[in-house]
């Protein structure tokens, strides 16, 4: 990551810098909000209860940092942030859905990047409405009880076109990410617009939950300028940058649960308390948003919450660790402890201790290809532990579990420890098939009770040993009492699957713990009633631990019959209902029309831009003797670009060579006087990758004999042959945003014609969908992708039976409409699958209700990957949806996408209310 790389300060250097006193992190070096203890105040802040969930509560708050953790109002906070890009989920209603899921899965903060190019179609023009409503997102995060770490760039990376820099910046003066005044003028204007919104939502002011501010500061002088900019804009929350003392921990993407454990436990083992998961939610790189580094519409297929808003296999360890950091305060102040070695040297061990509480943590890592079972000294004895191959474990000793009881040791990971009324609850997690062994130090003789048949226990010299075989998706409970206290300890043991149905929640009236449903969104105490909202997929029993006096339960607004169980919980008599089956409609009624009018010699291009520049704003040299043909120099930054060149003196022409530059999956199509010359792709022979995100290629097209003969015939001066060229795609590399895109040069053999070029790209940016929604195809410029376009005169076709012999080079459009009838109490995630595209060498641009959902690149074989159709853009409540496909084919491949169908990606009973996203139709006339 550009900005989020951890600083390279060693522990000793960092300790010397931070000392044992509180460090202010505000922009001028002072503490945000009211003052905390000044430098020289005796001793660090001790370990204690964490601050409660954040919100816009109207009170001033203090934020600072010492060498161990963030301090919020004098309390230690371990930050467990997850990254979410709002611009990758273009349905504001669903922001709440994902934010609620992140909170439920253990996050207490959301890290947010803002893409400048999404908000600014032109210099001085900014849009923070609709799917770009930053204020709405920040309000929603506060309502969901999440802190916000805001990263507005100006450069954000994130596999976004040009790293988030707007397309128009390619032709503006100044060099980006420097202190060049010409660049800073634009960057300051962008940050000023963001900061005007962010300042109103700062946690320090009590008007929101923006807790930290990250920024793009590759140079020291730029950092000084940024501080002045932020101070002038009223930003007072701490600033994180590449050289700041806070160790912002953000490992690279991890592929599976084991790799996620290794990555995050490693950082925990170094004592870090500022963590970020990249990415918590992947989302869709819709439209022309993606950079060449990640050209697929699916941004991160390894995200913990996938593009369809479903939990993935990687989520369990993140859920467990997040709740551990949020509910076990010992981990907010861990220091390196004397080295501990396992008997088997292949097992790497990091040992940490909390000087306040006496708790110890052990991070065990196994990088070998085999499971390792070894003795490890913990809690005053040698304990046998097993770490699976290429995996990691987090173990602890000395944790306070209530009423004087302490954890002697455990061979499974602690997940949470909380008190509900007179009940202390501690949950431990491991992998299914593992034998959990927990030793509990009790000041008085314990009275254990086995509540589930799997558990066994023994008592040895005042230490209670509990053994539980962990079964798949099974929770095992053990109750521990004694005669010297009225507090009861409840031990919970879960495997990964069962842990994902444990939901702690903090209400203003106390903590609750819920077990059973696939998701708990909210819990509220109302007199004797606890009101729960959430999601179910399967039929699930519901178990609730709530404060005294709670006797009744409602689920999603409906009362459920319950009674008191042996675990001192409220248990429902009947299971919660699962989600009903849904049947999706078949996609039929297709209509088709070919375009490529630009290839016709008599096409009227009088309104096109004349391409006659001799110097370029970009970094790519202009070929000798050629005009500038780069798309950005003429204001066309996204999508496809058309060129038309009139060739004077082309008699004898034998071949045309066209050099072009694109991002990933680029291609070029050419016609001469309407006759196809061929199609070329940058990833085929003749193409090469030039740098991180630019592909260059030269397409040589010999002229067919008929064309050569036609060029030798008599032609008037007013009727020169026309060379038409379509280039896709113009995405910009993150780190070389001024590298040219589009056609670079044209060379001819057999003749030396004089060429007069014109160029056309995307029309004016869509005021609702934004500047990255459409490109320069004829159909896009004339609204063929929009609802309301009259396609009644188009040819009727069936995609399942369309004849393969109907082949042509160029662009063919397909349109249909369909309706869904999803019950209002069901959240259904629907995808579009192009079953025929993997075997067809075509490019398919998918438009739903006018929104560009991204490009499918066919001809690669394998199972087709669905396009996720976000609810809000997708009308799910008996309303019409318009689906349009723009298919680019090379003339050797059938022009259609093949069979296309809707697929149910996931559904749940529950969800959040979804408002339709504005999808303007084509204007009549």
Automatic annotation (TrEMBL):
Gene3D superfamilies reported for this sequence: Beta-galactosidase, domain 2, Beta-galactosidase, domain 3, Galactose-binding domain-like, Glycosidases
The record lists the catalysed reaction(s) as:
Hydrolysis of terminal non-reducing beta-D-galactose residues in beta-D-galactosides
Query: Matching PROSITE patterns, A to Z?
Result: TAT
Q: One GO molecular-function annotation for this sequence?
A: beta-galactosidase activity
Coiled-coil ranges from the UniProt annotation = none
Provide ranges: composition bias, Pro residues.
Answer: 43-54
Keywords annotated in UniProt: Glycoprotein, Glycosidase, Hydrolase, Signal
Q: Does the keyword Hydrolase apply?
A: yes
Q: Where is this region: Disordered?
A: 38-59
Q: Does the keyword Cell membrane apply?
A: no
Q: Which residues form the Beta-galactosidase domain?
A: 328-502
Q: What Enzyme Commission number does this protein have?
A: 3.2.1.23
Q: Which family does it belong to?
A: Belongs to the glycosyl hydrolase 35 family.
Protein name as catalogued: beta-galactosidase
Q: Which organism is it from?
A: Streptomyces violaceorubidus
